[in-house]
């Protein structure tokens, strides 16, 4: 199941405004050629502005918007640790919002490449910059989300054709339920090869190999 879709209507053409300011023709007798005077003063003003801009320092980058030349390296930190949060990286999280724009870079000025529309979907954080997190989805695509769009609750997506939910974390345990590909579960605990999952009151132990959203070495309660 595809859990993302291309963003629509992101880019918009900039067209000249219609019925905007119009130059006035003619003038009062004895005042010369106002059109020529306006053109001359406009040229002088443009020259003054150009000189002022050339002398002005470049605007400082904000915490949320890295300079273009550093955008490719903003996620680099100590190995295995997020440079902003200090949390392990990569790490799994889940989508908090019901709709979230995935951007090409860490900032509102970057274009939207697609939109996540499935709340609770597991995501993998692979980069950090300011209030932005670079995430990878179950299909392997990556982009930048604002940190408010994700949460630490752990979820898992069924990637096998069907996943058996067993009463105990053992391949010989009785099967209590079966889940189809694309179902998203809340993760309650994980052992070496198994995770206890739950959805709508149905729970059981699923093999890690049938899930996406948990690392092969992760063990937690």
Polypeptide structure, described:
This protein is mainly beta. Among the domains are: 78-153, SH3 type barrels (Roll); 156-212, Roll (SH3 type barrels). It contains 1 helix and 15 strands, in the order βαββββββββββββββ. It has a 5-stranded antiparallel β-sheet, with no helix packed on it. The chain has a 5-stranded antiparallel β-sheet with strand order 14-13-12-9-15, with no helix packed on it. It is elongated and about 55 Å long. The two termini are 28 Å apart. The model is unreliable at 5-63 and 65-77 (pLDDT under 50).
List the keywords:
221 residues; SH3 type barrels; five-stranded antiparallel sheet; 1 helix; SH3-like domain-containing protein
């Amino acid at each position: 199941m595809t859990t993302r879709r291309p963003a629509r209507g992101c880019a918009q053409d900039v067209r000249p405004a219609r019925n905007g300011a119009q130059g006035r023709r003619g003038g009062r007798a004895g005042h010369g050629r106002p059109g020529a005077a306006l053109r001359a003063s406009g040229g002088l003003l443009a020259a003054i502005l150009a000189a002022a801009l050339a002398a002005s320092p470049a605007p400082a980058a904000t915490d949320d918007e890295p300079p273009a030349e550093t955008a490719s390296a903003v996620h680099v930190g100590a190995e295995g640790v997020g440079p902003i949060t200090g949390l392990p990286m990569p790490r799994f999280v889940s989508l908090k919002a019901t709709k979230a724009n995935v951007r090409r870079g860490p900032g509102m000025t970057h274009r939207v490449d697609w939109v996540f529309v499935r709340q609770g979907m597991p995501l993998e954080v692979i980069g950090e910059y300011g209030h932005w997190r670079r995430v990878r989805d179950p299909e392997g695509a990556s982009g930048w989300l604002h940190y408010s769009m994700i949460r630490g609750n752990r979820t898992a997506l069924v990637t096998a054709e069907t996943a058996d939910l067993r009463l105990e974390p053992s391949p010989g345990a009785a099967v209590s339920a079966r889940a189809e590909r694309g179902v998203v579960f809340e993760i309650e605990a994980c052992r070496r090869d198994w995770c206890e999952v739950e959805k709508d009151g149905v729970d059981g132990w699923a093999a890690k190999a049938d899930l996406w959203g948990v690392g092969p070495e992760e063990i937690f309660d």
